[in-house]
Amino acid sequence: MAGFDKVVSSYAEAMAGLTDNMTIIAGGFGLCGIPEGLIKQIKNMQTKGLTIVSNNCGVDDFGLGILLEDKQVKKMVSSYVGENALFEQQLLNGELEVELTPQGTLAEKMRAAGAGIPAFYTATGYGTPVGEGKEVKEFNGRPYILEESIMGDFAIVKAYKADRFGNCIYRHTAQNFNPMAATAGKITVVEVEEIVEPGELDPSQIHTPGIYVDRVIQGSFEKRIERKVLAK
């Protein structure tokens, strides 16, 4: 059983092997369900030239946004700029390459990579700048563009619970992109709120099977709110 134990004791061990110019797939939506400690570890490692594939880039001083401060990110593949002023500034200044991708297409790029599917056709983006230069094929009289899947050198994921074998459960909307991201890394690292022993998780409730996961680390989360709106 010990040979299947994927728990690591330090963030340095969790992200061992990350080097410059790699591609990282990151789970999360806004600041919800983001692997906070793994992102901080990437910042501490000062790796450069990174391509980050994630729905957005956090905010200026939290989440993936902290990787922009020292210009560690060469390229972002995202569905929107979000609440990050530094992201917007670096994009407009030409300091950051950004590939804006429709949200569903981005999710499918991750899922398809995990399923061993190199590319897929989608109607989304046809006739817009998103579809420029991409192969077009017609199905049932409707044009579709060919989109390639994305496999990362690393995938960083946040889960609610995981056992020592890497089987994961996500909590409510914090699930978001995490299940797709978990399948799309050559090395997948999961940061969790709680690690339990094998057999404690209901097999029918597991969202990500441990076969996709290489490393699990116990995290401590701030869970910052991106924008708080209170009813009057």
TrEMBL record:
<dbReference type="GO" id="GO:0008410">
    <property type="term" value="F:CoA-transferase activity"/>
</dbReference>
<dbReference type="InterPro" id="IPR004165">
    <property type="entry name" value="CoA_trans_fam_I"/>
</dbReference>
<comment type="similarity">
    <text>Belongs to the 3-oxoacid CoA-transferase subunit A family.</text>
</comment>
<dbReference type="InterPro" id="IPR012792">
    <property type="entry name" value="3-oxoacid_CoA-transf_A"/>
</dbReference>
<dbReference type="Pfam" id="PF01144">
    <property type="entry name" value="CoA_trans"/>
</dbReference>
<dbReference type="InterPro" id="IPR004163">
    <property type="entry name" value="CoA_transf_BS"/>
</dbReference>
<protein>
    <submittedName>
        <fullName>CoA transferase subunit A</fullName>
    </submittedName>
</protein>
<dbReference type="InterPro" id="IPR037171">
    <property type="entry name" value="NagB/RpiA_transferase-like"/>
</dbReference>
<keyword id="KW-0808">Transferase</keyword>
